[in-house]
Amino acid sequence: MTNTLERLPFTRPSIDEATIEAVATVLRSGWLASGPKVQEFEAALSAYLGSRPVRVMTSATAALEIALTICNIGQGDEVITTPMSWCSTSNVILRLGARPVFVDIDLDSRNLMLEQVEGKIGPRTRAILPVHFSGLPVDMDRLYAIATRHGLRVIEDAAHAIGSAWRGRRIGSFGDLVCFSFHPNKNMTTGEGGAIVADSPAEIRRIESHRFHGVVKRAPDQFDVLDPGIKANLSDIAACIGLGQLARLEEFNARRRELVAHYFARWSASCPLRLPAPGDTGHSWHMFAPLLPVDRIGMTRAQFIGKMDERGIGVGIHYPAIHLLSAYRKLGWREGQFPNAERVGRETITLPLFPAMRIADVDRVVDAVNDILKAAST
Ligand SMILES: *Cc1c(COP(=O)(O)O)cnc(C)c1O
Q: Helix-strand-coil percent breakdown of the chain, rounded to 5?
């Protein structure tokens, strides 16, 4: 019965023919590395983000590392962050010799419990690095009030949040350093890519230098390196994909909200899952990740994923709690420290959500989940 249905992945990018044609034009142009398309993409992103300066690079991971670097965060410094994210959010802190100080998350929003942040601020704290989980903004008023009160930098991991808004203002259009991802799973893609938004011209120059080996131009025939940088400049090929995607971002995100509204509507009367916080119209729904009550369903999460797979439906896991990954356990983190993040790590399931999905696909997912869990409980 299921063989006739097309496989439904948990996510898939939508790349239109015009973008494919535009990429072909770049390929024929003779200029593939960072050039006019990167400049055009940066200008378009900046226009989208309230005219703040934006610099693009090869990933959000590189963006986060560069953001921490230009804040001079390193050996002996502490950065307050979340244990519920993709591992790179805190890997970059460790890579620079600093220490992540984790604060647990709210079970439904998956965002940092900001009320616990001030208790973790000490003499070595330099920055707060929150994630707008699945595109639901953290409380920006409260976040920036804490940062201002304690003189801390804020580096927003906005990898999920391009197109999200807090009280009508786009994430990235205000705030301190804001990092985006254009990985193919994200709400818009460049194949792989990322960006930093920053205000200060001096910091923008440092970002430009750090994404390209640390090079600074002295004269048309002379360059120097002040600090060794990384190699993370974006190609014109990737930037060209980004231009095509950015033009459709609002449409993509509107579609994501429609599809999620249907998930919520289908599960409004009764739902065998714990649904995520609904947010408001500023939620860009990077993903739809309810919790599976693994203790009460008579099967493991892996078995559930297997059953969904038999029906041709992909399920993702976003994410295991970071502090329980081996690299972190080795440094002393343990079970029991961040109970909500650990529970989300055990129970989260990312159900299909992407702009090309149809309402009927949502129905198919809801029916599959309901059937599988009903069969398991009888
Ligand atoms: C995807 C992601 C990153 C890393 O993005 P890349 O562009 O793949 O480096 C960082 N943080 C979060 C929350 C992410 O989802």
A: 40, 15, 45
Neighbours of 29 (CB within 10 A): 14
**CATH number corresponding to 249-377:** 3.90.1150.10
pLDDT in tens, 324-353: 999 999 999 999 999 999 999 999 999 999
For 311, other C-beta atoms within 10 Å of its C-beta total 18
Domain residue spans of the chain: 17-246, 249-377
pTM of the model: 0.97
How many angstroms separate the CA atoms of 96 and 76, rounded?
10
Instruction: Tell me which residue of 284, 281, 283, 300 sits closest to 292, measured CA to CA.
Output: 300
With contact defined as beta carbons under 8 Å apart, do 344 and 105 qualify? yes
Residue closest by Cα to atom 5 of ligand 1: 60
Site to substitute for ligand 1 among 87, 183, 245, most atoms within 8 A of C-beta: 183
Task: Read off the DSSP letter of residue 294.
Answer: G
159 lines ligand 1 (CB under 6 A): yes
Q: Is the CB of 82 under 6 A from ligand 1?
A: no
Q: What is the CATH number of domain 17-246?
A: 3.40.640.10
Q: How far is the CA of 375 from the centre of ligand 1 (A)?
A: 36
